[in-house]
Amino acid sequence: MEIIFTDLLCVGAGLAGERVAVQASSAGFDVICLSIVPPRRSHSSAAQGGMQASLGNCCMADGDCPDVHFQDTVKGSDWGCDQEVARLFVDTAPVAVREMAFWGTPWNRIVAGRSIYYKGGKQFEKTEATEREGFITARDFGGTAKWRTCYTSDGTGHTLLYTMDNKVVELGVKVHDRTEAVALIHDGVTCSGVVARCLKTGALRIYLAKATLVATGGFGRIYRETTNAVINDGGGAILALDTGIVPIGNPEAVQFHPTGIVPTNILVTEGCRGDGGTLLDVNKERFMPEYEPKKAELASRDVVSRWMTHHIRRGLGVKSAYGDHLWLDIRHLGVQHIRTKLREVDEICQNFLGIDPVKDLIPVRPTQHYSMSGIKTNKDGAAYGLNGLFSAGEAACWDLHGFNRLGGNSLAETVVAGKIVGEKVVEFLRGYEASFSTSLALDTAKRQQERIERIISCKDGKENVFEVRNAMQDEMMDRVGIFRNGNDLQTAVDNLQKIHDRAQKVGLRSSGVGANPELALALKIRGMLRLALCVAYGALTRTESRGCHAREDYTERNDRDWLKRTLATWRDGDNLPHLDYEPVSKSFDLPPGDRGYGVCKIISCDGAVIGA
Amino acid sequence: MGRKLKFEIFRYNPNDPKLVPHTDLFDLEETDSMTLFIALTRIREEQDPSLQFDFCCRAGICGSCAMVINGRPGLACKTLTKELPNNITLMPLPVFKLIGDLSVDTGTWFRAMNENVGSWIHTDKSFDPNAQEERMENAVAEEIYELERCVECGCCVAACGTANMREDFVGAVALNRIARFMLDPRDERTEKEYFEIIGTDEGIFGCMGLLACEDVCPKNLPLQDQLGILRRKMGWTAVKQLFNFRKTR
């Protein structure tokens, strides 16, 4: 079997993985990135609206600084984030934005003089100072006190990813695309690389590495309706769960984005609302100001998604063949703005809905969007449980986002965490000598090869992998969605356990030869079910409401009992995850309090009940 | 009841010695708002799980799913079946190496292209983390973004007469990339340096001007204009070089 050696192996070549690779390569280390798609097709490219960093350049950002960004982020997380990490992040974000500018990202810039902008459907005027002209500008996003989201039109992720991959090409970092890691090689103490499957030939390969970074993005595809790309199936989280040691942090923390389009679930950016778009109901009336007088459409995503669902439940949604939805209205922003600043949105509406957003309303509803959870790491990006294993970006639970991520903070996290974790990986590599066990590596590969043969020959059964996946996705959608309750969650856990049994009996209908797509899913389905069970069981056990985790039977945020993070591991032979807990943060620069939006009933740390 | 669509799809798996290249037929009933992403996914899941094709974002953003749709290269995810006749023929992109069925290896091709044209900011400066960013006119940023919107899907290469005949032709995508860097004040390369990359028969002078690249570009990039501008600029650079050469001799 082919064995490849490297200093750093990045599993995933989106923005986070490549940013770490750039750091290590610049320090003189040998780096290989694995990617299941060519790197520029990574899901980072689909991030539209922008990246938060408190540059404070434009007039609507006057007075902004890392401290204000910190407060917005902690409040956004509903005090679920690690405040040390949040502080590191906000302090580094402005440098990271400028570094991307230096490397070639064409950020939109300040134009001096008067211009109009919209908020809540109303027109306002602002004046940019001449001395600020040409600096990086920003737009408004939900849950932020200032205009802080730096952007290039609504193709920010695309331009950042192209800039980053340009850097990767410049440095000569090797990218093995169409290669999927299927197992971590470890001895229970140290991770020494991965076994990977070539998606061109189907062959297995061994990669031995001093340091292994998992940056594979999120796991939206365990849900039926998600904005995520088809590749976001939790591959990285599954690698971690399969070790039995490395925990997934806060699996129950799943974000629904307010504006996925109906029926295809493609995202239209929060920038639509940031730039002044409004949400309308069946009567074409705004409803968010009624629920959120201060922030209206620009409350945090968890809050807006909940009110939208509530409004639809009140019978005020628009009926369609694909279920009820609401309207996003950006018509008043005008043709010039829509065709230049919201260009992807314009194209998506024309191509997939056959409508013109300059004249027509856009059908939207909350759609699964982001995994705040992921492989639990410390603030250096080092994974819990195994030496030499790191994680960054959406795949990780660093934990910047707690129970709700702010728009613009994920794109920022990819390059900021990439930069910080990259530095720490370099420090780790500098003082590190590894010794590799070839028998350990070959045994790991052999176990995977045997698994592949069992699945191809239907040795464990003939369950249809697509049907098993559909059953899981329906269960997650119906019972582990925006509003949750004990009965539904218990039913979901019971049903997912049965589906998990079926997943172990999957057998192929096709030959499994070469880069067979049925086999790729069959290899992953068991892990996807375990991940789904982590989400459902984590949610069942957390008897409070915090951020995106909204329990109808426990409506209060309970800081007395639940100011803690779930750590889920999967022990071999079990059919439920094992849950541990740790404090959410060592420090509390911003003590738990009211977010300023959303329903606020809190059982505080001392047991006092605050709010309605 | 929707239309009965008949798909004729190219099939070949180079890893399966038993197979020869051929096409297979699949019947599918059309549903509302059906795209080729939905159709192909259903064919794979309901009829033939071995069928290989590439989708990623399924939103026209990532460039994964380019294929030849009834003779014309395009992104399958944003192609609505209602815009196609009952008979739909799907072929893999030419020029790129076949992985299997409709899946081709664009990754290797584009990595080489990016290496060849030096697709990054060339500068002698180093990044100062404590400094304010350098200013740029917003209009310039927007001009750069206009060309940077390329998603490297490969449609322009597949539709190009020269690229289909000559493996060494860089393609409109590479020329557009150079045009993007020529606009960028941060890139310190001179016209002469750009000329060395594309001022050749494999570069801008190999373009026959058929301009199918612009016709098929799913991002509607202004390739015709860019090719024209580059040809003129590089032509002038060639003339100037000739002149300088005589002077120095």
Describe what you observe in this structure.
The complex is a heterodimer of chains A (612) and B (249). Chain A is an alpha/beta fold and 612 residues long. Chain A contains 16 helices and 25 strands. In chain A, helix 3 packs across helix 11. Chain A starts with a strand and ends with a strand. Chain B folds into 2 domains: 100 residues, Roll (Ubiquitin-like (UB roll)); 131 residues, Fumarate Reductase Iron-sulfur Protein, Chain B, domain 2 (Orthogonal Bundle), CATH 1.10.1060. In chain B, helix 3 runs antiparallel to helix 6, helix 6 crosses helix 9 and helix 7 crosses helix 9. In chain B, a hairpin with a 2-residue loop joins strand 6 and strand 7. In chain B, the strands form 2 sheets. A 5-stranded mixed beta sheet of chain B has the order 2-1-5-3-4. In chain B, strands 6-7 form a two-stranded antiparallel sheet. Helix content of chain B is 38%, strand content 14%. Chains A and B meet through helix 3, helix 4 and helix 10 of A and helix 2 and helix 3 of B.
Topology overview:
The complex is a heterodimer of chains A (612) and B (249).
Chain A: E1 3-11, H1 15-26, E2 31-35, E3 51-52, H2 66-76, H3 83-103, E4 113-119, E5 122-128, E6 149-150, H4 156-171, E7 174-177, E8 179-186, E9 191-198, E10 204-214, H5 235-241, E11 248-249, E12 254-261, H6 271-274, E13 278-280, H7 288-291, H8 301-316, E14 326-329, H9 334-341, H10 343-353, E15 362-371, E16 374-376, E17 389-391, E18 396-397, H11 409-430, H12 438-456, H13 465-479, E19 483-484, H14 486-503, H15 517-541, E20 550-551, E21 557-558, H16 559-562, E22 564-569, E23 578-583, E24 602-603, E25 609-610
Parallel strand pairs in A: 1-2, 1-10, 2-7, 10-17, 16-18, 19-20, 21-24
Antiparallel strand pairs in A: 3-6, 4-5, 8-9, 9-10, 11-16, 11-22, 12-15, 13-14, 14-15, 22-23, 24-25
Helix pairs in contact in A: 1-4, 1-11, 2-3, 3-11, 5-15, 13-14, 13-15, 14-15
Chain B: E1 4-11, E2 22-29, H1 36-46, E3 66-69, E4 72-75, E5 87-91, E6 97-100, E7 103-105, H2 106-117, H3 138-148, H4 155-158, H5 161-165, H6 171-183, H7 191-198, H8 212-216, H9 223-248
Parallel strand pairs in B: 1-5
Antiparallel strand pairs in B: 1-2, 3-4, 3-5, 6-7
